[in-house]
Amino acid sequence: MTTSDIAKVAKPAETATTDAVRPGARTTSAPGRPSLSGKAGAPVLVKLPPPFAVRLSQIAWVLSLVAGAVVVVYMFVIRQAQLPAIIELVRAVDATRAEATYTTAADIIFWAVFTPAVAIVLVQIALQVSFANRRPNVRWWLFGTVLFQAGVLLIAREFVAFGERGAPLDRIMLIQLGLAALGLLISLLPPALRWTARRHDVRSGAVAPASDGQL
Prior knowledge:
Layout: H1 3-20, E1 40-46, H2 52-77, H3 79-93, H4 99-132, H5 138-159, H6 163-186, H7 190-198, E2 201-206
Antiparallel strand pairs: 1-2
Helix pairs in contact: 2-4, 2-6, 3-4, 4-5, 5-6
């Protein structure tokens, strides 16, 4: 290749380079980075404290359950002392039976009162867990347990909670029922009803601007 041929090849390359850097020539720039600030994020589940009415209702229920536990323990403790009085109640109905029949009947009556007292406490504990988790219609179940509890109290007054040792049992059961009814009534206040209907606490998540190091 001669010197004249090299000059012919170099001349178009220089012309192309000059056109690329010419001030009036058009240039294509990269698109700008989209802004990440000011955009609404997806809703976020949060754990908010329940309203005061819910807390007050839960406190009343807890105190009622404590009273229920005392009822169960105290009833079991006075069982032997109350059996003779229960036997006399059965004997007053029919005095022609054998002595063993009265003892068996008295045992059946006592356990027929004791078992529902235990069941009430266990069921109400489970329902309180459901109430804390905002399960629907749980108040109706709690209302049913309160009615059942009132029935157990009336039966206990007739067959177990009488006499010198039975009088404290009657008062404790009455306190248990009153606290349960109070807790149920407080849970019907508007703030508590709205808290249950909401089911979940949600807030809108704001997207924070991202720095260059995060991208």
